[in-house]
Design a protein that fits this description.
heterodimer; A: about 280 residues; MetI-like fold; B: about 450 residues; alpha/beta; D-Maltodextrin-Binding Protein, domain 2; five-stranded mixed β-sheet
């Protein structure tokens, strides 16, 4: 190794170290704060305290129904992710594999829907969903139901686009070979496509789960009663005190971060492969 | 072949779905007719039940801060339950911004699904809501007497002489200060009474020199100090008619001049955000905090500083003859949404609790250190108790006295919009821009932003 490249190497590591400290610091602070009393947090303590159990006790003892919210968030995120994988991947697959005249026009309409900011859709969506409450079957997705939060995230333009892009790397020959072997279209999708595109699915799972887990605005508007609320709403309610209990809030936040962190670490390898796959395509 | 079969199944299922949907809605008509019949009878029976044992409604209340507002409703609920055991009251904690978002979405779409019967609204936002959605709020004139409350609070809840809100917590401004630092700097607690800002800065400089700590914190992104100074002179960003009055507003100009002097005095600590603000006085890095009385619980969190604090009135501005030693920051009131369906029950609850009940105020003073804006509360037992943390001072009685002296101003509809603009304007002026021309520019911007 020449001297020059060694210097470059050192420089690279210095920059990377600084960047990782910057990105890790908030998490570090969060965990430290979760183990301290509120007063010590505002005083700027940087050493782990012994107050974690007390914070957890306060959190569970508060009227905010943290555990209910955790359960709600988990149900919503899991169901949304599962449904979104089936629906959006089928849509993305179909957009790429089947040819029709209207295909690209329809697809650009789908993409256009990405450009409309959610704030503009809020009021009309709210009205629509409030009407659902009076219709027998649709009331499962009406206002204040878990379904209202799930249904809205099942088919998103981003996921459809993501799956279509990745389907471009899926070898056409496989489909044709299967057809010749007499496999039906549906089976081709479930038996050939799905297993081959594992890493794409993994990336999509991570993205969808995180988006659903952290979603704030729509659940805020759609969910009315306390026992239906999701985690971000409860954490937001905690933070709006005149004298916030930072120790307790940070404990709540640490617990709330765990599921996404776990999902990410489990799927890390596939996630990276899936993301780079989409760039290649 | 298989594909066709799948399609057929899909088509059939969509048709079935559609049919059930249609059939369903037809069914509901039938059942709703039936229901009407049954509800008519059940209404009768509930009415009878209500007559027998009070009422059977379920009320929903939205508020923020579990340790403060929510606690207050819970206590009110207990008191109310003694006379009305059958009324169910559901109290929901929600962030203030979340309440604003939800109210806006629901009210502007005309859907009352899930809306609360009673909602807490901050004073600065009240006029905006009342002006935009006057038809949604119940007239509370018949359940409360404005004369029972501090004048500056009822001014916020009124439209055309009708009262739409029950005033709740006081945001009366006060000077919390460290007696040990002040004495070390060569001043006495006597000097802190009838304080003016010039004197405050003078003391601040002495504190900085002799104790090495700053007098107070300043947050460039939060100009609450200017708001308080302005209100102490009976001025606001908007005039009595609600129109923007940024240019040629003597109260505002004096406030900015005072603020600038404070910045330039060199005895303040610059901070950003709530954490460092609380941290500064909990850590003993500043000798005083000038803000609303609601900061008292945060001050008392630093148990090691017990006995070292005292509270003095808000400083007045030397240059402004109208300025008094009293002002306010924050505070809110209870409002009833009348189209949600339980107007009468909601009004009855408020009437017997927040609108009149001195015992409730007395208990809340002890439970959540609430400073009530109800005039009669000043006579309550807990208001006359000394507080050891503040050297035995009867802080509640002081807060109550100052509350009655706060000048009334019309907060208008757009306090927060104007405040955002003014934060920039103040920074420009503090760093050297000409005051009159800057304010004139921002007057034009503010008029555009509020579409006047």
């Amino acid at each position: 190794m020449s001297k020059k490249s060694r210097v470059m190497n050192v420089l690279q590591y210095v920059v990377l170290t600084i960047l990782s400290i910057i990105s890790i610091f908030p998490f570090f602070w969060m965990i430290i704060a979760a183990t301290n009393k509120s007063v010590d947090v505002t005083k700027g303590t940087m050493v782990p305290g012994t107050y974690l159990l007390e914070n957890i006790k306060n959190l569970m003892g508060s009227d905010l129904q943290y555990l209910t919210a955790f359960k709600n968030s988990l149900i919503i995120a899991v169901v949304t992710t599962a449904l979104a994988m089936v629906v959006s991947s089928a849509a993305g697959y179909a957009f790429e594999v089947y040819k029709s005249k209207a295909r690209d026009r329809v697809f650009s309409i789908v993409l256009l829907s990405m450009m409309v900011p959610f704030a503009a859709l809020m009021v009309p969506l709210f009205r629509l969903f409030s009407k659902f409450n009076n219709i027998p079957v649709l009331k499962w997705i009406g206002l204040n139901s878990t379904g209202s939060v799930i249904i809205i995230a099942v088919a998103t333009a981003f996921l459809i686009f993501f799956f279509r892009q990745n389907t471009k790397t899926f070898p056409r020959e496989l489909i044709e070979a299967s057809r010749i072997d007499g496999l039906g279209e549906f089976k081709i999708f479930t038996k050939i496509y799905m297993p081959t595109m594992k890493s794409t699915y993994a990336a999509a799972v991570v993205v969808t789960f995180m988006a659903s887990w952290n979603n704030y605005l729509w659940p805020l508007i759609a969910l009315q009663s306390e026992e239906k609320r999701t985690l971000p709403l409860v954490i937001s309610a905690m933070g709006s005190s005149y004298t916030p209990d930072y120790g307790m809030i940070m404990t709540a936040v640490v617990i709330a971060t765990l599921p996404t962190a776990i999902i990410f670490f489990i799927m890390q390898k596939q996630f990276v492969a899936g993301m780079t796959g989409s760039v290649k395509g | 072949m298989k594909l066709k079969r799948v399609f057929a199944v899909l088509l059939a299922s969509t048709m079935v779905m559609g049919m059930t949907a249609c059939g369903g809605s037809g069914d509901t008509k039938g059942t709703s007719d039936q229901k009407e019949g049954t509800t008519a009878t059940s209404e009768k029976s509930t009415e009878e039940a209500a007559q027998e044992a009070g009422e059977g409604d379920a009320l929903t209340v939205w508020a923020w801060d579990e340790a403060f507002n929510i606690k207050a409703v819970e206590v009110a609920k207990e008191i109310y339950a003694k006379t009305n055991p059958d009324v169910k009251i559901d109290v929901v904690t929600m962030a203030q911004d979340d309440i604003v978002t939800k109210l806006n979405t629901s009210l502007s779409s005309g859907s009352y699904e899930g809306l609360p019967d009673i909602v807490l609204i901050e004073d600065y936002k009240a006029q905006g809501y009342l002006t935009s959605y006057l038809d949604e709020f119940a007239d509370l004139s018949d359940i409360m007497n404005p004369a029972d409350f501090a004048g500056y609070k009822t001014a916020v809840n009124e439209i055309d002489g009708k009262t739409y809100g029950i005033p709740f917590d006081s945001g009366v401004a006060a000077t919390f200060y460290r007696t040990d630092y002040i004495e070390q700097a060569g001043y006495t607690q006597e000097d802190m009474q009838n304080l003016t800002w010039d004197k405050y800065i003078e003391i601040g400089k002495a504190v900085k020199e002799k104790c090495g700590v700053d007098m107070c914190t300043l947050d460039p992104s939060d100009i609450g100090q200017i708001r308080m100074m302005m209100q102490s002179a009976g001025a606001w960003y908007s005039g009595d008619d609600g129109k923007v009055t940024i240019a040629d507003n003597q109260g505002l100009k004096d406030a900015i001049t005072t603020y600038k002097a404070l910045v330039e005095s060199g005895c303040t600590k610059q901070i950003s955000g709530w954490d460092p603000f609380v941290g500064a006085f909990n850590n003993g890095e500043v000798a005083s905090v000038v803000t609303g009385c609601w900061i008292a619980p945060s001050v008392q969190k630093a148990e090691d500083q017990s006995g070292k604090w005292a509270v003095a009135p808000f400083p007045k501005m030397d240059a402004n003859a109208e300025s008094v030693n009293a002002s306010s920051i924050g505070g809110g009131g209870w409002y009833v949404l009348k189209n949600v369906g339980n107007e009468a029950a909601a009004k009855d609850f408020l009437k017997n609790t927040f609108a009149s009940n001195v015992d409730l105020m007395n208990q809340l003073a002890a439970d959540i250190t609430l400073v009530s804006t109800m005039n009669a509360a000043a006579e309550a037992e807990n208001y006359k108790k000394g507080n050891d943390f503040f050297g035995g001072q009867e802080i509640f009685s002081d807060f109550a006295t100052w509350t009655s002296e706060v000048p009334s101003v019309n907060y208008g509809m757009n306090t927060y919009v104007l405040e955002d603009l003014m934060t920039e304007a103040v920074q420009a002026i503090v760093s050297g821009a000409d005051m009159d021309s800057t304010l004139k520019d921002y007057q034009a911007q503010a008029e555009a932003a509020t579409a006047q």
